[in-house]
Amino acid sequence: MSRSVKGTVVVDGQELTVSNPEKLLWPEMGITKAIFLQRLAALSPWLLKHCQDRLLTTIRFPDGVNGKSFYQKNSPSPTPAFVETETREGIHYVKLTSLPVLLWLGNLACLEYHASFDRVSNPEHPTEWVLDLDPTLEEEPRIMEAALLVGDLLRSLGISSVPKTSGATGVQVIIPIVQDLTFDELRRIGEFVGAFLADKHPGLFTIERLKKNRGDLIYIDYLQHYQGKTIIAPYSPRARRAASVSTPLHWDEVRRNVAIADYNLLNIEDRLRKEGDLLDTVAPQSLRSILQFIGGGKR
């Protein structure tokens, strides 16, 4: 039996325990826990920004990406004094507010960070609208083509958006919005867009909820965007062999048919240093006129 190794580090005045720093979390990429924590620290300004004011769910992989995993909603016990929580329906969610909190979770092998669509401060009115393009096939060579068609349609409606890889198999199209619509109102717009695209491109898109009935089509999931549901946070790592990271893209990159696995824990820091956060490139916009156009809003 291997001997457990532990050490401590001080980060922003908080003493953190690091256990088994040489444990391989992504064996195929040679990423140990120590490397993972270093990469998390580099990602922290962006990851914290997109998880703050959200209910956080993590996925833990104690033995790395090839081992068993489990979802963690309740704050792990024991919870250090510097970790704040938000209680909802009896669940004590960790508030991802600082680098020490992020590294504490990282040391527990929380490899994925999923944030609620609704904000803690204003749960009824989201600050973005998201269309999730979910391939039925594990390997989907048409995913960027599909994302581009969604982006082009939104642009024709006067809607600016940012594509983001899920880090797994799909792409999410994110539309920053002002807080003047409810989740139900946004669902009506999503149903309109999804039905239009599925009708125009029946060999590519579907809005069929049951996976067994989708064939090889890409599901336009407009229902996931709802209060109480979650999305993989921008810049969160994924428990995939390539250590991919959920990454916002330029539309030109989508046109070039980039691969989701191109963006990973080992190169995302350089990209952020050069590109910044692409989600900041689109200002919040109102979609009320679109809702009124399709007959779903007050005039």
Describe the structure.
Residues 32-278 form the DNA ligase D polymerase domain. Its EC number is 6.5.1.1. It comes from Paenibacillus lignilyticus. Keywords: Ligase. This protein is α+β, with helices and mostly antiparallel strands. Helix content is 26%, strand content 24%. It contains seven helices and 15 strands. A five-stranded mixed beta sheet has the order 11-12-10-14-13. Helix 1 packs across helix 2 (99-107). The longest helix is centred in the first third of the chain and has 19 residues, at 33-51. The model has no long low-confidence stretch (mean pLDDT 95).
Number of domains: 2
User: How many helical stretches?
Assistant: 7
- H-E order: EEEEHEEEEHEEHEEHEEEHHH
The CATH topology of the largest domain, please?
Answer: DNA primase, PRIM domain
Low-confidence stretches: none
The overall pLDDT average reads 95
CATH superfamily of the largest domain: DNA primase, PRIM domain
What is the level 1 CATH name of the largest domain? Answer: Alpha Beta
Question: How widely separated are the two ends?
Answer: 70 Å
Secondary structure: helix percent? 25-40%
Large-scale geometry: globular
Which strand order do you get reading across the main beta sheet? 11-12-10-14-13
Strand content: 15-25%
Can you tell me the CATH architecture of the largest domain?
Alpha-Beta Complex
Measured on Cα atoms, how large is the radius of gyration? 20 Å
Main sheet, how many strands, which sense, barrel? 5 strands, mixed
Alpha-beta classification: alpha+beta
